[in-house]
Amino acid sequence: MKPLILNLDNRDYKFKYEQLYEALREQILDGFIAADEKLPSLRGLAADLGISVTTVDQAYDQLVVEGYIVSRPQRGFFAKKVSRGPAWNGSEGTRSPAGSGQDDIESAYIHDPSCFDFVKWKKCVNEVLNYHSERLLYESDPQGEPELREQVAEYVMRSRGVEASPERIVIGAGTQQMTSHIARILKKMGINLVSIEEPGYLPVRSMLRDAGFQINRIPVREDGIDISMLPGNIQSAVYVSPSNQFPTGAVMPVGRRYELLRWARDNGSVIIEDDYDSELRYFGRPVPAMKSLDDGDSVAYLGSFSSTLFPAVKISYMVLPRKMADIYQEIKGEYSQTCSKSEQLTLALFMKKGYYYTNIRRLRSLNSRKLERTVNAVEQHLRGRVTVQNTRSGLSVTLRVDPDGPRSSAELAAKAASIGLDMDPISAVTGQDTSALTYYYSQIPIELIDKKIRDLEQLWGS
């Protein structure tokens, strides 16, 4: 076993185990640690580096989870054969063009492994498999596992001020299933008209339209939806994102929230509050949910764990008003649960042990620094051509591109993808005629942000 050359920097923003994990990963990928080569023992490497055995254990655990090394009982840890592939271009964690031209290339997006603590998630997975495996032998509750609904009830009260009993909480796999539930409940209530934000999230509009609802598009102002344009003297519903409207970033102030609640109460109507990334607010405290102000029980509250865990976990939830919850109980037997039962139980444990709240605090701190660097980099390298908007919360910013530029937003997004940057033309998800793009800066390791914007300047040209 040859000696490893590893340097851990006390000034680095990352935890020690993250630095060690990344250093070992790079040495495996570079071939300095050969396939099937034995790694130092936990105690040996800890002594060599002057760090704790726990730190080394966490780094090794992460490498095992991601498939870089394997643990062999009674023998130790060994490197696996891992190749960067023929298209690897060097040091930034991206892939260079594999073909002769860039226009027909699909590049892998960059991802930042420090955004989530998979070591703690794995511990919860193991606990489910070791002590609750018998529960995985039968189907999940269509409303969601009781333990997770209890944790969600505690969470929304603690973080969003929303009082909710587990009996009024429904777990599902993403926006599509939640919207499907709500659509059937609204139909049972005799509601056939739904107002939506304009511009707004196109997939929701499409699902409601396909469910047979009449769609009423309401313009969004700087302080949210124009309440004066909502229908009166008729029972209807409105779909809003008052804490971070997509794509404008508008936040509805408390006075207008009460105005919207009065509209719902006076007309016997329903407010569907989509609170999709409320926890990830980087300036001041998170804005209270509209549901926390709802003394008339008119708000159906939607939330998701995708932005605060990792995108592959498609676990969403809704908190229903009493009348809607009663209707759901009548129809829930017609549904099957589409969320993995093992993931629901894992998340319940992850929350119960406090890991989820720790992860949110880490995400806020990390993403606020990433956001600052992103804004500074765009202003430095793309000044006059690109304006950054929607910079107070969430996992992305809006890049408003000079509409007189020579390229479409779709072409600009494709150019960005060729260097690993994830951007979506806003027109694709809102139906709006615009040159703006959504840029998911949170996926980029903080040390690469400035370089990637400089690379983007070269690609986009003038």
Main sheet summary: 8 strands, mixed
Proportion of β residues?
Answer: 5-15%
Number of DSSP strands?
14
Oligomer: single chain
Question: pLDDT average, as an integer?
Answer: 85
Q: How do the SSEs run, as a string of H and E?
A: HHHEEHHEHEHEEEHEEEHHHEEHEHEH
Radius of gyration: 24 Å
Shape, per Cα inertia axes: globular
Low-confidence stretches: 85-107
Structural class: alpha/beta
How are the strands of the biggest sheet laid out side by side?
Answer: 3-10-9-8-7-4-5-6
Please give the count of helices.
Answer: 14
Please, could you describe this protein's structure?
This protein is an alpha/beta fold and 462 residues long. It has 14 helices and 14 strands. An eight-stranded mixed β-sheet has the order 3-10-9-8-7-4-5-6, with helices on both faces. It has a four-stranded antiparallel β-sheet with strand order 11-12-14-13. Strands 1-2 form a two-stranded antiparallel sheet. Helix 2 crosses helix 3. Mean pLDDT is 85; it is low at 85-107.
